[in-house]
């Protein structure tokens, strides 16, 4: 049977008080609630119920009923990812970077965080060696060198935990990753979240280095040179969760404003470096300073790097990230020195 579900985010955005609206339309609030949570499959719902919901939301039935697996956000506690390019649970995530810009360090950090969040982490060890592989081997809960080994490791974990798989682009080019996905699907294993890296760094200039992705994270070498980690490009990096009302309206609106600010800040930065900040008009200067603070805020210490940086790492919940970014966007952090925000956790105003 086709996997269909309600576009719950759309309903929440269009109908703020869904319970009251449902009752006024002659629908049982409990029925609507159970449809939204999945307790009642959409396929078992009465047509008149679905039609009434579509009318309340002012949308078509095609917009109300989504086909395929619903997208869920895999929260990482890493501010720049959760805000601007959320990881899709059970999806494919691609990390695109040149060598030594931080992609393997980010994957090791994600493994560390997922291991403490009741996920199982599996690393498909590539034949090629690169700096950072050893750290990945330390943080992965299980390691396999062949497709058969990785399959067995996933089977061992999948009954009790959701699995996050790290793999190199070589497995995409060989087609082995797709064969593994089909094998897992045939075995009835829930979708595995796959994080793809490019150990060689050769794919940084390619338009689609991994093929279709659910989340695309591009690294910026210029951020690395300024010591801003994770060095994820806040303008180019993106996620399919930003489309089709997959995120909560508040999250979506804040990330859109934040990306717009970062885009303008990056346009102004070369001018400031060349001519000086004082040459900017007042309004542009304000935008530049807020962009500078937001860029600093999106940097963050890693748990795996604590012995080297001597900076305490933190898991920043999404709700706190949204609150802090809203504060920066509204100008309520204009008085806070950039140095106090850079490479820290929460915003202290």
Strand sequence of the main sheet, in spatial order? 7-6-8-9-5-10-11
- The count of strands amounts to 11
The CATH homologous superfamily name of the largest domain equals: P-loop containing nucleotide triphosphate hydrolases
CATH-defined architecture of the largest domain: 3-Layer(aba) Sandwich
Mean pLDDT: 90
Specify the overall morphology. Answer: globular
> What ranges have pLDDT less than 50 throughout 5 or more consecutive residues?
none
- Work out the helicity level: 40-55%
Number of domains: 3
- Kindly provide the radius of gyration, computed on alpha-carbon positions and rounded to a whole number of angstroms: 22 Å
Keywords: ATP synthesis, ATP-binding, CF(1), Ion transport, Membrane, Nucleotide-binding, Translocase, Transport
Subcellular location: Membrane
Family: Belongs to the ATPase alpha/beta chains family.
Main location: membrane
SSE arrangement:
Blueprint: E1 4-6, H1 8-14, H2 18-24, H3 29-37, H4 47-57, H5 61-64, E2 65-67, E3 73-74, H6 79-84, E4 87-88, E5 92-96, H7 103-115, E6 119-124, H8 133-139, E7 142-144, H9 147-158, E8 162-168, H10 169-174, H11 176-186, E9 193-197, E10 215-218, H12 221-225, E11 238-239, H13 249-275, H14 282-297, H15 306-309, H16 318-329, H17 338-341
Parallel strand pairs: 5-9, 5-10, 6-7, 6-8, 8-9
Antiparallel strand pairs: 1-2, 3-4, 10-11
Helix pairs in contact: 2-3, 7-8, 9-11, 13-14, 13-16
Family: Belongs to the ATPase alpha/beta chains family.
InterPro entries: ATPase_a/bsu_AS, ATPase_alpha/beta_chains, ATPase_F1/V1_b/a_C, P-loop_NTPase
Keywords: ATP synthesis, ATP-binding, CF(1), Ion transport, Membrane, Nucleotide-binding, Translocase, Transport
């Amino acid at each position: 049977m086709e996997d269909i579900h309600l576009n719950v985010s759309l309903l929440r955005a269009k109908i703020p008080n869904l319970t009251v609206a449902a009752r006024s339309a002659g629908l049982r609030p409990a029925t609507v609630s159970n449809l939204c949570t999945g307790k009642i499959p959409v396929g078992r719902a009465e047509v008149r119920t679905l039609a009434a919901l579509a009318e309340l939301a002012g949308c078509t039935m095609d917009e109300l009923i989504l086909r395929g697996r619903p997208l869920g956000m895999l929260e990482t506690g890493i501010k720049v990812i959760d805000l601007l390019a959320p990881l899709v649970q059970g999806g494919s995530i691609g990390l695109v970077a040149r060598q030594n810009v931080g992609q393997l360090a980010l994957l090791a950090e994600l493994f560390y965080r997922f291991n403490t969040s009741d996920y199982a982490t599996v690393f498909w060890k590539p034949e090629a060696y690169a700096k950072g592989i050893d750290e990945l081997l330390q943080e992965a809960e299980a390691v396999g060198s062949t497709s058969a080994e990785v399959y067995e490791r996933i089977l061992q974990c999948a009954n009790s935990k959701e699995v996050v798989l790290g793999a190199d682009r070589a497995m995409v080019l060989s087609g082995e990753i797709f064969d593994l996905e089909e094998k897992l699907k045939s075995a009835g294993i829930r979708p595995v979240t796959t994080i793809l890296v490019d150990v060689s760094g050769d794919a940084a200039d390619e338009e689609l280095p991994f093929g279709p992705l659910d989340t695309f994270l591009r690294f910026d070498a210029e951020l690395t040179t300024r010591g801003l980690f994770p060095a994820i490009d806040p303008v180019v990096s993106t996620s399919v969760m930003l489309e089709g009302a997959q995120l909560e309206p508040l999250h979506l609106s804040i990330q859109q404003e934040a990306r717009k600010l970062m885009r303008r800040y990056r346009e102004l930065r070369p001018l400031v470096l060349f001519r000086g900040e004082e040459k900017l008009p007042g309004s542009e200067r304000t935008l530049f300073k807020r962009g500078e603070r937001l860029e600093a805020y999106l940097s963050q210490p890693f748990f795996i790097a604590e012995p080297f940086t001597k900076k305490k790492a933190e898991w920043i919940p999404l709700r706190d990230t949204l609150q802090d970014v809203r504060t920066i966007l509204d100008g309520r952090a204009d008085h806070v020195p950039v140095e106090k925000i850079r490479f820290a956790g929460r915003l202290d105003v």
